[in-house]
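Forwarding the complex inputs:
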Amino acid sequence: MALLRITSPHTQRAGRKTSWVMLMVIAATIPGLVVQTALFGWGTLINILIAVAAALVSEAIILKMRQRSIGFFLKDYSAVLTAVLLGLALPPSVPWWLTVTAVSFAIIFAKQVYGGLGNNPFNPAMVGYAIVLVSFPVPMTQWLGSADVVATQDTLSFVHSIAAIFSSAPVIDGYTMATPLDAFKHKEGLMSSEAFASVEALSSGNLSSWFYVNMAYLAGGLALLYFRIITWHTPVALLGALAVMASLFYMIDASNAATPYFHLTTGAAMFGAFFIATDPVSSCTSNKGKLFYGCGIGVLIFIIRTWGGYPDAVAFAVLLMNFAAPFIDYYSQPRAYGHKKAKKGLKIGDSQ
Amino acid sequence: MPSDVTVFEFHGGIHPEQNKTQSLQLPLGNPKLPDELVLPLGQHIGQMSRPLVKVGDRVLKGQTIAINNGFLSSFLHAPTSGRISAIEERAIAHPSGLSDLCIIIEPDNKETWCELRPMPLWQESTKTDVLTYLAEMGIVGMGGAGFPTQVKLQGAQKNDLDYLIINAAECEPYITADDMLIREKTSHLVQGIQILQFLVEANNVIIGIEDNKEKAIELLQNELRVRQLDKQIKIAVVPTKYPSGGEKQLIQLLTDREVPSGKHPIDIGIICQNVGTCSAIYDAVVLGQPLISRITTLTGAALEHPQNVEVLLGTPIEHLLNYAGCDHSQLQRLIMGGPMMGFTLENQQAPIIKTTNCILAGSAKELPQPEPEQACIRCGMCEQACPASLLPQQLLWFTKSQEFEKAEHYNLFDCIECGACSYVCPSSIPLVQYYRHGKSAIREARDATIKSDHAKLRFEARKARQEAEAAEKEAKRLARKKPAPKADKAKVDAPTNDVTTAKADNANKAEKPANNEASKKLKIDLAIAKAKMKKLEKALTAAQEETRTEEINQLQTEVNEQKNTIQQLEDELTKVAPPAKVTKVANPNEAGVKQLKIDAAIAKASVKKLEKAIKKAEDINAPELETLKSQLTPAILRANELEKSLASAQEAAAKSSDSTATQAEELSEQAKADTKKLKIDIAIANAAIKKAKKNIDAMKAEGQDDAAIDASGLPQKLAEHEANITGLQQKLTDLTATDSKTEKPSAEVNPLADKIKKQKIAVALAKAQISKLTKRMEKEPEKAAEIQLEIEAKQAAQTTAETELAQLLNTQEKN
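Prediction (whole assembly, two chains):
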């Protein structure tokens, strides 16, 4: 038998392939998915199924057009992950075509047009989310409530969910409930304390639903950390910056601002910190860079939540920091072995 | 496991399957002699060794069969007794898979040793002797690179050494050669370390060893305790993590210091030696055995009996594979070295060399083919694993897109190619291969720039040379045109003057100018070559001090070439020179005239050149304008004087060839010539004074203190020149006086003038020295007393010189 001629190294860590990484991230979303489904009904699950199907189809079509091996690239599960993240982020009762629009836009324009996996400068899921959020604001802000807080005292049944999603049958108001962030944003002239006392969406029941959702994502995120699929830098920096900003403004004006606890446990805080901002392709590279990147997202989330036009802000904050990521990379090279200090900039001579 | 030394950490690292137990099941094996031993001449870093034997020679075990070729090279010895059956190209163990020159020995199976000359009293020898001895014993670094050990240790002689680190980490999976060596030869190893410590005198001696070698650690600890060395030699047990055995990583683990990028451990007072090298040093120094065998691990799933073997250098790998029961149907990948950094071999005939620590015969299942490369998702696992704290994902991006400048900026050249990034990459990207490609592309580009720079320099030099030649030709043409009739006359008159001279002249006529030219050119070439040689030697010593391997090699070859060139030039010169001398003797006048002509032409050319340069400098307002201008005046002066003396010399030549000319005339001519010469000398001295003054002014303008100016020796020169001028002027007046008084021989006056001149110089010198000493005294008050004494002595000297001068002047006046 002819002997192989290959350069070193001759071994590879078994098992931990890119597809494994993607599947692990998908698996880590399961606690969040379960809690979301339990609290807000079947909508999220159906969304995810629709999204995955749409993602696989659009990815396959584009790969075919780009004359790439379809099977090889579909098996990296990156499209599935994008679809799952989008499915989780979209409100549970959005019509199917909205999900399909978001996902196919994410896959085709935010990912494949740039050259496929590894080449996209923006987080595809968040590009898809932002597109439908800007284009279809009404369905995008309609969130379902958990059984204990809504008027019907029940979540939307599976059949009703299917009906709402596929025939665009309007969801009875009795099932819907604004998200706490949305409600807080539109508290109008009320003081914070008054709003928390009187507004239904800010009742302790609704708040605790969102607390559970966030805790479920935190658990998933910790699993990712444990398996070393992500590093602590981005989520810690993001949540830290958000908490610092919230505390600062709460201290300045407690009557109109929400507590840091509120900011960290509602909306997509944990989901964004552990699953969205940590997308390696579009985020910063070095550990130092990830700290800057996470901080930037945290600050932007708070700014947009407080003064922006949208109740939640993870998508826009992440996209804005995606813009900044290459720049941050240039100035956050780690100090290499044998060098007195880290190099900066892109080329030789930039360090001075 | 307790460790005597604080162990620090290094960034990154991986934990691959160790696979070390397989080869530790059997004791150290001793394979039989193969049918032939193949000894490549290049088993080390540096120049290939030079064979000392011929085909057909009988050699004894341990006999030197090749010696070092230059400084960075090594000796090679016969691993067994036998006959040299060939010296030819054979497949060698090299990543390229190429062949190279090897000495082939056919063993006689008698294993007859040559006479061994150990150095048991090494402690009483000088270090240089021991180092030389190590070189002669063919000792090179056995950890991987094969760097000649004495060269590495020589670096330690010049630096104060903080740490001598003995590398026993052996972090590569599968390899257990060092482990086995420590177990089998503990006392040899420790004594080897003692010899090393004697040579380098480090403040600390630490053995760095991974905690997976428990037995080896225990044996080492016992040995050190028994020898009561546990205070001097410490054992640092480091956690098992690849690549802790990398020199830089081990240094960081044991000392928390980093080897600066592009430098060597020796630069921060650290030297690393592999355990194999230590034991080889013991074998050489105490037993007198040169490096002819080593311990190598034979392992891999394709082998039935994986084990460590003590194997003679030059043993073909196939012989060892058969010894270990290789199942060739299973063997898919044959690796020399470990699975992380080893390289694949295609030819099983390749021999074991001094650096072969492992032969890994892998099956397809054990070392599967790499999976197809997927896209980089920048997950950063490589970054977390990189022991050099690089950003492998960025480096991949840049090397892939051929943006090598960026890759360099991201410290591509700090990559040690350990393979940790490739190992962890979830997308199966062969990262190290990309980096190797990037590095070689950058190196190629660098070489290309150096080459083009050289070409540019060569072109410019050629242009300048051609211009100079053209100018010289033109000058010669002009010179020939004017004095042609006179010269002819001289030649025609020559026979009547002296027949023998004419004969010699005729005989040499054809050769003479050519010879003169050739010898001159040769002399210039020789001077250039010698200057180059000096420069090269300097660079070489610098490189040797910093042990920059590649450069040393390059420089060594260049020095050798330069030596050859100089030798050649000298040979040619000796060939050319004698006839030229004969000519000179034969007709000094004519030769002098010619010499003067050439000099005058050159002087003119240089004036022209200077004028041109000044013009140019004026155009661009260059800062060197001043210097150029100051150079111009003496150049013009020189040219004029030369022309004058040429004319007079021609006259003299014409006259001297005239047989009827009286001696008186000749003498007066001589006097005139002398006068002229003196005038020229005065002019030159004047120019020199001006220059010196200018230089002093410039130095003052630059704000340099008097001490510095003194140190430059300029004031002294000034004084000398001034004294010189007075002397010359004196001489001149004397001469003119003598001249007007007709042929009264100036033999009496001249020595007097000479004496006066000498005294004047002595006075000036003494003055300069005194002023210098005074300055020094101000600077170094602690030595004031000594300097004061010196000054007094100098003052005394000055007074004596002055008195003598006065006396001399008196005598002169009386005359």
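The first strand of chain B starts at residue 37 and ends at 40.
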